[in-house]
Structure to design on (227 residues):
C-alpha cells in the first residue's frame, strides 16, 4: 500500500516558538493532502485540505495564520504551528490522496507538546 | 464526527468474532471506510466498500453495508490480541473525493 511519512514523530517546544511538521508521500504523488488534529480518546478533526500549488482550504474555526500549510510539491506538505501555546499540544496527523483516488493514506502522526 | 456514530468500547475474547457497528447520515456517500489506529500511531486503512455493494470480505475482515438503514459493520473473525486498537468508520459526504467524516472510534479490547 501507499506510504506516508511524517517528521518529526514527537516534538516538545517552548511556548511562543514555532514548529514545522512535514508530511511526505513516499511512493506516490499526492495531489491532495489533509491535516488532522486528534485529542486524546477523540476522533480526528479535519483542520485543512491542501492541494499542490494552491492555497490550503481551512475548516471553520481553524486559524490559518496560526497553522500555516504549504504544499509545494506533489510529495510534500508542511504544517507550521506558529507561536505555539500549551493548548496547541495535540496529535497531528496528515493524510494524502492521489489524483482521482478515493483512498486516503495516513501518516504515523506527530505528537506535539508545548511547555 | 457528529454525523457518524459508533459505540465507544467493545471487548471480546481471543478467538471470538468481533463486530463493530457504525451508522452514518449522508446517503450520497459513495465510499465507506474502516481504519485502524494503534496507540500513538496514525490510521491504517483496513478496507472500504463502495456504496452499491452489500458485503465485502477480505481474509478475516467482512464489511456489511445496509444502505437503507445507513448502517455499516466490520466483522473480524478469529480476533487476536494484535487486533486490539481503535477502529474508525468514515464516509465521504456528498461523494466527495476530498474529505472524509470520521466516527468517534470504537476501542476494541481483546482479552486472552
Amino acid at each position: 500500500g501507499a506510504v506516508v511519512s511524517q517528521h518529526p514523530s514527537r516534538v516538545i517546544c517552548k511556548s511562543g516558538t514555532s514548529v514545522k511538521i512535514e508530511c511526505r508521500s513516499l511512493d506516490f504523488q499526492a495531489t491532495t493532502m489533509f491535516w488532522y488534529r486528534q485529542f486524546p480518546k477523540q476522533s480526528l478533526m479535519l483542520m485543512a485540505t491542501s492541494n499542490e500549488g494552491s492555497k490550503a482550504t481551512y475548516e471553520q474555526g481553524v486559524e490559518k495564520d496560526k497553522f500555516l500549510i504549504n504544499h509545494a510539491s506533489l510529495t510534500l506538505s508542511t504544517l507550521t504551528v506558529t507561536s505555539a501555546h500549551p493548548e496547541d499540544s495535540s496529535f497531528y496527523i496528515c493524510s494524502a490522496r492521489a489524483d482521482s483516488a478515493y483512498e486516503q493514506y495516513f501518516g504515523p502522526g506527530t505528537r506535539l507538546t508545548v511547555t | 464526527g457528529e454525523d457518524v456514530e459508533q459505540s465507544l468500547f467493545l471487548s471480546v475474547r481471543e478467538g471470538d468474532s468481533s463486530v463493530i457497528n457504525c451508522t452514518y447520515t449522508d446517503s450520497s456517500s459513495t465510499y465507506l471506510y474502516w481504519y485502524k489506529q494503534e496507540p500513538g500511531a496514525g490510521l491504517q486503512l483496513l478496507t472500504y466498500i463502495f456504496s452499491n455493494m452489500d458485503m465485502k470480505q477480505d481474509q478475516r475482515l467482512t464489511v456489511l453495508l445496509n444502505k437503507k438503514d445507513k448502517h455499516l459493520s466490520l466483522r473480524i473473525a478469529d480476533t487476536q490480541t494484535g487486533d486490539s486498537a481503535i477502529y474508525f468508520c468514515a464516509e465521504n459526504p456528498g461523494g466527495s473525493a476530498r474529505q472524509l467524516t470520521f466516527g468517534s472510534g470504537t476501542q476494541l479490547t481483546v482479552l486472552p
